[in-house]
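#lab-general

N.A. 3:47 PM
ok so I finally got the sequence cleaned up, no stray characters, all 482 residues accounted for. can someone with queue access submit it? mine expired

B.Y. 3:52 PM
send it over

N.A. 3:53 PM
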Amino acid sequence: MELPAPDQPDFRHQIGSGAGAGPHGPPAGDVLPQGDREGDPGAPAGDSRQDHRRPLAERRLRGRGPRRRRSDRRGAGPPPLRAAGGDVRPARRRRAGRGRTVTAGLRGAVLGALLLTLGCASAPPGAFRDGGAPAVPPPTDQQVMVTYAPALPVIWAQNTADLARRYGLNVVHAWTMESLGEQCVVFEVPRGGSVHEVVKRLSLDSRVSLAQAVETFRTQGGDPYAQLQHGSTTLRLDQAHRFATGKGVKVAVVDTGVDFDHPDLRDRVKIAQSFVDRGKGSFANDIHGTAVAGLIAATADNGTGIAGAAPQAEIYALKACWEQPPGARQAVCNSYTLALAVDFALSPRIREPPQVLNFSLAGPTDPILGKLIDRALAKGIVVVAAEGGTPNQDFPANHKGVIGVMGSDDLNGPPSVPAGHSRAVLAAPGIDILTTMPHGTYDLFSGSSAAAAEVSGIAALLLESEVDACAALASLGGGGCK
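B.Y. 4:20 PM
back already:
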């Protein structure tokens, strides 16, 4: 898989009063082309808000007009994403496709909403310090990552140079994972070399703590559990928002970028940090991360658009994925960019660390990411991830302590475990959920990515209400966070 090359200086952008990325923040990576925002000098010819991805834009709902609801679906399987006709009274705002009922009382209201609306599918028991990323990363299918135990930087530098020489590797990037106190290095294996063999040899080297291939992850834009789509039972959070809105709860969205100028998100995004590209413009057109952020925390009662599950939560937009192809709803990430993003989320560079980590993505088991997630869990952070739905592509949802979420369209009862599934997961609405899209627009969004975002929002409600989110999820039989 070839990664696009960058063309602008590092972007480290912080919004509002949230602390974090600054001039001495973590390195930005180098994979997305720039010039996405209208008026950017580097914008591709013909690219504008009017003509960019026109087939998709024509389906979107824009601005403050009457809300629309989806048309009836016919036939089996997930419907295509679309915005269909039918007006809703302008005086009432549509809230991400959800109706609301909730029991009285603060704790009972929020916890009750969770218990009633989430189904649980139970199963049987160069410079070797922080710095800029390489200008042109090599193809990820020829990359390996290693970590070293804590040591003096000069020792790390010597080890890296010696490993590169001994095993015939090229150094791509080396940085300190502050959250673990370890050095991480990405090497390129020359074309024709065996990544598997290099990983095997590096694993036997006494200086190396962990060695692995750089894996590819994909955002979960489609619904892998079509057999669970029985109807249109939806989350019921309207009355819950009388008691809890996620106010002050920080949710890190590890995804593509988020359009932080969107009217429903401009007050919610507190940190926007890119680990895959250079330049501000690339955040403006990012579809997947914008959709996920809206489902979690789109602002309520602002006279426009929708309301997220936790409409007063704060979003940390950590861009570790890029759309492929450009303009698509699906995106890809890799071990390298995800490790940069997660380590940043856990580092002391953020004065107010996130309380929830949302991964609306999946891929193969990844030891280094697993170690970072273990660190997050040890710090009391709730980690939510989308189910991959395919064998060997279900990480981090299948990692111990992570809340795995599948997309469903009907939760009248606990959904059955899909064939071959061997662990507990949660199910949340994941079909045709209205959410935010770039440039102030809205559209329907489906998949376990959407479901994971809903659960992250509910976790924020629980945390604001001082309900133990992990214990509440465990009460569903979903394993909680232990």
